[in-house]
Amino acid sequence: MFKKLMRWLNQSLFRRLLFSFFTIFILGIALIGIQISISTTDYLTNQQRQEMLRQARNVNATIQSTEERTANITQTIENLGQFSSYNIWLMNESGEIVAASSGDMMIGELIHDSLMEDLLRGQNSIQVMQIDEEERPMLSVAVPWYDDDEIRGGIILHSPIAGIKSTVRNIREIVLWAILGGLIIVGLSVSYLSWTISKPLRRVEEAANEIALGNYQKRVSHHLPDEVGELVKSFNRMTEKLDQIEKERDSLEQKRNDFIANISHELRTPLTAMKGFLEALQDGLVKDPESQQKYFNIMYRETEYLNHLVNDLMDLIKLEKNEVSLDLYDIHIREVIDVVVYNLKPSIKEKENKIHIHCDKDVPLILADSLRLEQIFKNIIHNANKFTENGSIAICITLEQNEVLVSITDNGIGIPSHDLARIWDRFFKVDRVRTKKGRGTGLGLAIVKELVNLHNGTITASSQLGEGTTFTVKFPVHRYPKL
């Protein structure tokens, strides 16, 4: 039975709270009620005892002032009984009742010897008696009857204790009504408390179920600054993190798919061409030595392209995984650019472009890897030359605010504004550039950006379609500490 009750309670937060609050409230009020009843009973009983003792002494004093003993005493006792709520007995030294306020029915009756012994010794006695003529238990107070300082007997006052019990019973009824009213208030309070706790928890449960189904946009609203509110905030932070992770996963998945699609496209074109040429040579369709040599040259260029593509991919993967280490030492950036321009002179001359280099005299050294710097500027200058015909390329090297600034400007075909932000993406190629100006791997600028970042530098690009493009690279100046 107990296990079933506990299982039933554990199925609901409201039930547990209600049962706990009811139990604590009932036990608390019951203990308080019992204590009040006991304390009230003791207090009222003690007060009545003290009052009865006082009245008994007054009776004794009244009797002593009566000159004619026998008849007057009986009348006096009867009169005192009428004007008080007590039943009064007067006893002689033998314990015989000689006068009673209730009439002659008790006259002649004998009192217990033990009680008379106490009275004759001058001791008061307080006890509860069950009198045959009374149906209710009586609180009795007995005091010695003095006459000229001599004990002639005893005086007993009786009072029903039903009044005390009635008062205590009224207190208990008040406590019961307080319990009933308190239970209603506790029930309403627990209902509200349970609602304020369980409602947001149900919202969290519903949101968790939706998140389990893939809805990472779900949030829970709760504005109270309590523990449940902190739980809701933590839950929302968790969902935001899950949403971010899911978006990053989708982004990585999209990048992976784009990478596979791009690399497949980049590999398919040269492989298809090489396969076609090899099949033509293998089938003997091309017998002219000059044509055969032409086919061999084309296949060699396609092989070079594939080799270049693989090398660029390996470089980019290493850069993104931070697996590239730089061989740093102080170099003058003008020297690196002169080497790059010298190596690109044949292709620049072929496009009939002119190149101009300007370098300020006060440009300091930078801490860099010269081979990687050559790779950076070779890509940028090569792109500028590739998309410019019968134009010019200007390279300007200056010092601006502790940074060496290199700007490479051409007056070529330019880049559309909506494509400018994407030129750093892997395999991204502007369509008009791809179709009209030859092909590339689409990885050069992505590698350039990674290498510039590796040198703690920055690179930006600005372009105007049909007017040209400017790439600006900034490297921090390397300054040695003063000795």
TrEMBL record:
<feature type="coiled-coil region">
    <location>
        <begin position="228"/>
        <end position="262"/>
    </location>
</feature>
<keyword id="KW-0808">Transferase</keyword>
<dbReference type="InterPro" id="IPR005467">
    <property type="entry name" value="His_kinase_dom"/>
</dbReference>
<keyword id="KW-1133">Transmembrane helix</keyword>
<dbReference type="GO" id="GO:0000155">
    <property type="term" value="F:phosphorelay sensor kinase activity"/>
</dbReference>
<dbReference type="InterPro" id="IPR003594">
    <property type="entry name" value="HATPase_dom"/>
</dbReference>
<keyword id="KW-0547">Nucleotide-binding</keyword>
<keyword id="KW-0067">ATP-binding</keyword>
<dbReference type="Pfam" id="PF00512">
    <property type="entry name" value="HisKA"/>
</dbReference>
<feature type="transmembrane region" description="Helical">
    <location>
        <begin position="174"/>
        <end position="195"/>
    </location>
</feature>
<feature type="domain" description="HAMP">
    <location>
        <begin position="195"/>
        <end position="247"/>
    </location>
</feature>
<dbReference type="InterPro" id="IPR036890">
    <property type="entry name" value="HATPase_C_sf"/>
</dbReference>
<dbReference type="InterPro" id="IPR004358">
    <property type="entry name" value="Sig_transdc_His_kin-like_C"/>
</dbReference>
<dbReference type="Pfam" id="PF02518">
    <property type="entry name" value="HATPase_c"/>
</dbReference>
<dbReference type="InterPro" id="IPR050398">
    <property type="entry name" value="HssS/ArlS-like"/>
</dbReference>
<protein>
    <recommendedName>
        <fullName>histidine kinase</fullName>
        <ecNumber>2.7.13.3</ecNumber>
    </recommendedName>
</protein>
<dbReference type="GO" id="GO:0005886">
    <property type="term" value="C:plasma membrane"/>
</dbReference>
<keyword id="KW-1003">Cell membrane</keyword>
<dbReference type="InterPro" id="IPR003661">
    <property type="entry name" value="HisK_dim/P_dom"/>
</dbReference>
<keyword id="KW-0597">Phosphoprotein</keyword>
<dbReference type="InterPro" id="IPR003660">
    <property type="entry name" value="HAMP_dom"/>
</dbReference>
<keyword id="KW-0418">Kinase</keyword>
<dbReference type="InterPro" id="IPR036097">
    <property type="entry name" value="HisK_dim/P_sf"/>
</dbReference>
<keyword id="KW-0902">Two-component regulatory system</keyword>
<keyword id="KW-0175">Coiled coil</keyword>
<feature type="domain" description="Histidine kinase">
    <location>
        <begin position="262"/>
        <end position="479"/>
    </location>
</feature>
<keyword id="KW-0812">Transmembrane</keyword>
<keyword id="KW-0472">Membrane</keyword>
<dbReference type="GO" id="GO:0005524">
    <property type="term" value="F:ATP binding"/>
</dbReference>
<dbReference type="Pfam" id="PF00672">
    <property type="entry name" value="HAMP"/>
</dbReference>
